[in-house]
Amino acid sequence: MSDYSALDFSPLVALSADEVVTHSFVRDVPLSHGRVLALVTLDNGRDHTRPNTLGPVTLLEFAATMDALKARAARGEIHGVAVTGKPFILAAGADLSKVSEIPSLETGKLLAQLGHHALGKQSEMGVPSFVFINGLALGGGLEIALNADYRTVDASVPAIALPEVSLGLIPGWGGSYLLPNLIGIENALKVIIENPLKNRVLKAADALELGIADVLFASASFLENSIAWAEKVIAGTETVARPNLPGKIERLVKWDAAVGIARRMLENRIGTVAMSPYVALDLLKAAKSGTRQEGFEREDDSLAGLISGDQLQASIYAFNLVQKRAKRPAGAPDKALARPITKVGVIGAGLMASQFALLFVRRLRVPVVITDLDQARVDKGVAYIHDEILALENKKRITSDEANRLRALVTGTTDKAQFADADWVIEAVFEELGVKQDVFAEIEKHIAPDAILATNTSSLSVEQIGAKLAHPERLVGFHFFNPVAVMPLIEVVNTPQTNDVTLSTAMVVAGKLKKNAVITRDTPGFVVNRILAKVLGEAMHAVDTGTPFDVVSEAIAPFGLPMTPFELLELVGLKVGAHVLDTHHAAFPDRFFESENLHKLAEHGKLLERDAKGKIKGYDKAALKIVAGGTTPMTATDLQRRFEDGLADEIKRMLDDDVVHAAEDIDLCMILGAGYPFQMGGVTPYLDRVGASERVFGGTFHTPPIRGVGAVPALAGAAE
Q1: What is the similarity comment for this entry (predicted)?
Q2: Domains in the chain: boundaries
């Protein structure tokens, strides 16, 4: 068994010269009958925009504080120890900037051991230990609480979670062992596996219901009530019930079965490329038996392996893209240039247009008018928006007063004159160049000279769409992804005519819609659809030449994508997919394939066979007949190389043509717009790792490549 107190943690301290230290401040709180509660407040001295984090120096200070308090408890000076955080924050977990700098597997294991060494001391105080969860508690922040004997929670806490598996890690400071042994295996699987993959967190009430917290108190008197409750526990007058503690039957019967179900769910949902969810599953399975120390040592080894691997570094890269680069978009003009938006016009009243209108009215809280060819379509669109507002009200997402105000802001008309005072007009009409040109030429007659025009085209030239405009400088591409309310990306397309006022306004509007915007040059497919067209074109070309569907899926599997090319084609629509391939083939006939078979599949209307619940059973028999006839099938290995090299070539061309400013923007688009996995870092880190970048253009997208310290170099043949 490891003796954590005998370990030398100085290699970690050497990496921490610039750590923002979260200090442990102690004060004694007098209780009745001469008892004393030592209250430790975690505070990094910054405001709420810089949460407490747990780096090596922070953990060593916390451990020393616990040692001193344990000595005081042994002398009878204190009768309980409680930990809480600065206002609104307990802790946001490990300092990821430090994790990414760890130079070796051995040092990675030291970090895991240091977390156990420091946080685990709470269970060895000789007096009851408490954590008062007063605010945000993520990752290691929640593990502080799990290592204590008792927990209270503030009713207003917005986020409690163990999100590690979404970042290429596992809860490695006790969470993987302690949580299932506190709330049961099924609940722990939800918190550790399911919630992170769905970007969900627990609220305070959820934590109480699951048994993570023992009691919940209102914010106004949270600390006072927590102290009073702790006093009762110390005095023995408060009995703590934990109904979700796993018993013998759960350990013997339910435990392994629940883990097995979760494993099958993972395989179906994310495939088997991402490592951390499966490592977490193994730890959760093992947690049903053995000692606390054995559980901690399993976490030490597992966390060390993940910290030294490729996927953690790729995850941290992706995390920084989403948290930092997305908030400071490359090439964005000064926000001060943006026009204020006081009214929005939406051309079209179909599903996509109605989703736009709903989003604009919810986020901007300004009048929104929609129009279409006839009043019946307009009325249908307005009714859809009103129904969606009612659904939000019924789900308690908005109040009845808010719902009434939003409904009052939405109107529909066939009279284009109603657009005269709109500052922002966006179209969502049929994806045909002539239609879009005519729509904008007509609406320009009715709007103010400085009103902004936006098109949601997914692949047409924005510049050509504006060819009939008197003022093309006010036109910008504003490409949403479906479903509009959920997908976080907008591609903002900058044409040679688009002026800075228009571009700035588009970026500011995207921010107010709570979307991440990336500026792209006006080229076919922009970023996301161009890369998807490359993948789908290669996939259909392989099928057309005789390669079975399953072999194609096997070839693309190492990319770790959320679905196969054929599932994606059915999701976007086979006709849409065929149109996208045609568009890109017309633009780049030497590099992008068209597929006559895909047009035939679109006419047939089906590619996959599903059961009554929508689960994929196989391939539609008629679809198999449609694509039969190819005589030069490829192996999965050959096709994987084609996917890799084809993407490396296309992305390099996109960067050379300044479609976006850097490889980071490509990855940000693919993560946010196409669901490419965090743990792969999007797409370019993977292409560097497998040697495709070197094979294609003799370099890498990232210097140095984004690799783990324990990574195996690319195969010797990679540069051939």
Answers
A1: In the central section; belongs to the 3-hydroxyacyl-CoA dehydrogenase family. Belongs to the 3-hydroxyacyl-CoA dehydrogenase family.
A2: 4-308, 335-512, 528-719
